[in-house]
Amino acid sequence: MTEHLHLAVALDGAGWHPAAWRLPDARPGDLFDAAYWVDLAQAAERGGLDLLTIEDAFTLQSDHPFRPDDRTDQVRGRLDAALVATRIAPATTHIGLVPTVTTTHTEPFHVATKVASLDWVSGGRAGWRVQVLRQQAEVDQFGRRVLLDRSQVASPEDRQALSRPLFDEAADAVEVSRRLWDSWEDDAEIRDRPTGRFIDREKLHHIDFEGEHFSVRGPSITPRSPQGQPLVVVLAHHVVPYELAARSADVVFTTPHDAAGAAAIVAEVRAAEERVGREGRPLLVHADLLVLLEADRGRAEAARAELDELDGRAWRSDAEIVATDPEGLADLLADWQAAGIEGFRLRPARLPTDLDAIADALVPVLRARGLRPAGYGPGTLRERLGLGRPPSRYAADPHPERTPA
Amino acid sequence: MTATTKKQVHLAAHFPGVNSTTIWNRPDSGSQIEFSSFVHLAQAAERGKFDFFFLAEGLRLREHRGKLVDLDVVGRPDSLTVLAGLAAVTDRIGLAATLNTTFNEPYELARQFASLDHLSAGRAAWNAVTSPDAFTGENFRRGGFLDPSQRYERAAELIATAKEVWDSWADDAVVADQAAGRFVRPGAIGEFDHRGEHFRIRGRSTVPRSPQGYPVQIQAGDSDGGRELAARYTDVIFSRHSSFDAGQRFYADVKGRLARYGRTPDSLKIIPAAVAVLGDSEADARERADQIHLDQISPQGAIAFLEQVWGRDLSDHDPDGPLPSFDPDVEGTESITKGRVRHTKDPVAVAQQWRDLAESKGLSIRQLIIEVTARSTFLGTAKQVAAQIDHAVQEDAADGYILVPHLTPHGLDEFIDTVVPELQDRGVFRTEYPHETLRGNLGLEPVR
Ligand SMILES: Cc1cc2nc3c(=O)[nH]c(=O)nc-3n(C[C@H](O)[C@H](O)[C@H](O)COP(=O)(O)O)c2cc1C
Fold first, then answer.
1. A189, β-bridge pairs
2. What CATH number did the domain enclosing A11 receive?
3. Residue A93: domain span
4. What pLDDT is stored for residue B341 in this prediction?
């Protein structure tokens, strides 16, 4: 029997192609309205997708890797992704909601509370894409720390070494969050009339995290959420973030460019897990793809060329760009699955066009091939991904983890 | 129209929270954490045409004698997150989040409120509280870094800096002109650049100017510094001066400060917290109030209250027996309860007063605590309560009230179904929302 693939969609602006907002079906005037995001989420849910992600950053989109630009012909501006995700939650029922939230300048205590609260509002569908920010511009927006000057560093190895402390900090931030999420045991609220106690305080725990960048005492102000541990995801392109994922995450999003590259990345991720001594479940390894779908491949390529023409240059990206038809994309997914990829995060070139195509054209093909389930079953996001509900690490007598059959 | 227009009442709904007044032990006490509880109260308040729905904040679980407080409700979700969810299930009611000015940074905070304002189409409000204590600081990067005497300096600079961030995009920056290939107007995304005592930040914000420009600004501090901050910067004061006389004094004091900042009295709404207890008759309401107070002050809760004043362990005392004969431990009162806003200034005097009161009325510990804590601002039939509110507002004891129910989530249902129509009949409360934004419904001028 074929294994099901996990399927996710990455939402950002009017789509991932910089000129997508200029197409007739785009809704560029609605990007800062709730209704736009609700419509997208409902389309993703119509396709039975496991989860959606929402991009975010503290700096404005820019063509320049480290500096703001003054371009006026591309989408600029984003709302806070965690709040967008929560705004979507009551308007959807099943789909996982995974906003991007940075660890570099934020308070781990606030971040943990926000993600747990999203889990409460969505009834167990919350995730968090952990993001590390490395730009001077972000430092200036917060004004509280000094970063080493990346422009002075030439080699990629040196640059990796420079970012390592930020990734270590991110690992600490996730550790704090995970402890806070566990700091209330599931049955801590007792409402015991005879003794007048609302909680059993033996079941709430200080977390007493002491790290290089911060210490956090705890416990959380928010009771343990429906998933217990909301889903933690890291997008990773090289060894330092692979190790962050291996230390901290449940899922790693990767960017292979072909099946052989996918196999190599899976091996690198497993090696990273080995190096950091990961315990418990191995990471779910997902691959990111930029997708542009049309009824046939020729039309898809023409659409891509038209977008590139509008933008004035060829589209480049960290992930592989696929302009094809649903059958062609299904072939590719099956091919990479054979190389060890367990799921895909599709980044639509055009919104809502390519999201609609994913939901209404790709998913039926995947279902016909037995690569996707017919619909949503019961359960939380974690449960749908086969990750179960972990007991609190502080529980004296943890019930055995519920593992799916 | 012949009748002179009466001053209009503003109403808000406070989600019952981490507080001894919230009754959690009754069969109709609902979840304090499930989203459905928040939805119920917010939708009920919107049905009642309330101005806004309000969430308090506490960033460290309270401790009493070195242990987590377990007698009151404990735990709550993040305010902004819940409000973003509520924006999906309400249309017009304002959404007010309490956020601390000490343990937040201006750019991130400004970005979140502007996002909520977009996602709710102009209904966001921010209640700025300072709570700078080192105990709370233990959950944050910088610990207890701020000298409490600087709390309002930082708060004022934080608000001013947030406004610079909100002002950095021009109103009409996003043009999304597909034909011309122009998404934003050239030069319409400006830089914020703030050099101050507490913050030195600059950059470009990612969030376009939001429907209200700024979220409605609320303030809840009561000291002189808090009142000045409100007079200078805020649109609404959430005060605890709900009784008629104290309300009038506070009202006159704060409104009197506005001229100094070139503001009119109408530009700042004073909305104290209030409790309303209803009944079929006044006697019935009084009986219900008594039962509520018994439910609020459990035997264990009465002892814990006493310990806050006495500053020491009193668990060997019988809640149904007399008060301690000895004086409070003055040293102990500094530290016995953490994470709660303290009100007891002189424990020895308070203890003496309480002992005298208990003696003269023959009260046990629990009865005494009920006597000194139980407060209903408004009590009676729906008609009577509406008349009391109307009177207080016309006589400038307040511009309206933030109603604090004692039950989650149904605690305001009766008020909304019975008192609101009475207020509407008296011509002092709206029957429809006149505006789409909270700022409009509060009768505040648009920003700029
Ligand atoms: C009615 C009222 C409600 C308050 N609500 C909160 C709250 O939810 N969270 C919080 O941290 N502080 C809260 N506070 C505390 C104040 O904002 C302020 O930090 C505190 O009162 C100390 O300042 P002050 O000396 O000016 O009163 C509240 C105060 C008042 C008067």
1. A199
2. 3.20.20.30
3. 6-301+310-384
4. 57
CB A9 within 8 Å of CB A307 = no
- Cα B346 to ligand 1 centre (Å): 20
Within a domain: residue B446?
Answer: no
Tokens read off for A234: 């890291």
Round the CA-based radius of gyration of chain A to a whole number and report it. 21
Task: Using CB atoms, pick whichever of A21, A78, A196 lies closest to residue B298.
Answer: A196
Q: Which residues pair with B68 in a beta bridge?
A: B63
Q: How far is CA B427 from the centre of its chain?
A: 26
Residue A94's H or E segment, with its range, is none
pLDDT, residue B27, reads 93
DSSP B82-102: HHHHHTTT-SSSEEEEEEESS
How many folded domains does chain B comprise?
Answer: 2
Cα–Cα distance between B99 and B102 in angstroms, integer? Answer: 9
- Chain B interface includes A64 (CB < 8 A): no
Kindly write down the DSSP assignment for every residue of A230-268, as one continuous string: -EEEEE-SSHHHHHHHHHH-SEEEE--SSHHHHHHHHHH
State the pLDDT at residue A90: 98
From residue B22, alpha-carbon distances to A329, B277, B292, B412 in Å are 56, 14, 10, 13
pTM, two decimal places: 0.96
Residue A1 lies in a domain: no
How far lies A11's CA from each of A252, A349, A386, in Å?
17, 10, 24
Residue A96's beta-bridge partner residues?
A51
Structural domains of chain A, count: 1
DSSP annotation string for A26-68: --GGGTTSHHHHHHHHHHHHHTT-SEEEE---SSPP-SSSSS-
The H or E element containing residue B445 is none
Say which amino acid occupies B285. A
Residue whose entry in the numeric block shows the structure tokens 């990750």: A387
Helix (H, G, I), strand (E, B) or coil at B350: helix
> Are B225 and B103 in a shared domain?
yes
How many Cβ atoms from other residues are within 10 Å of residue A404's Cβ? 10
What's the pLDDT tens digit per position in A235-249?
999 999 999 999 999
Characterise A15 by phi-psi region: left (phi > 0), alpha (psi -120 to 50), beta (else): left
A26 close contact with B: CB closer than 8 A: yes
Of A53-67, A169-183, A209-223, which range is least confident? A53-67
Residues A175 and A209: their CA atoms lie apart, in Å, by 8
Q: Which residues in chain A have their CB less than 8 angstroms from residue B103's CB? A: 107, 110
Tell me, yes or no, whether B150 and B181 share the same domain. yes
Does residue B315 sit in the same domain as residue B417? Answer: no
Q: Find out whether B271 and B12 touch, Cβ atoms under 8 Å.
A: yes
* Domain assignment present for A209: yes
Q: Ligand 1 pocket check: which of B102, B129, B135 to mutate, most ligand atoms within 8 Å of Cβ?
A: B129
User: Do B399 and B430 have their domain in common?
Assistant: yes
Structure tokens at A404: 């799916």
Whether residue A114 and residue B204 make contact (CB cut-off 8 A), yes or no, is no
Q: Which of B130, B236, B254 to mutate to test the pocket of ligand 1 (most atoms within 8 A of CB)?
A: B130
Cβ partners under 8 Å of residue B98, min gap 6: B54, B55, B56, B57, B79, B127, B129, B220
- Residues B73 and B196 reside in one and the same domain: yes
For residue A108, what are its two tokens?
């781990």
Task: Please provide the average confidence, as pLDDT, over all residues in chain B.
Answer: 94
Ligand 1 center to A43 CA (angstroms): 43
Domain assignment of residue B51, given as a range: 3-277+381-441
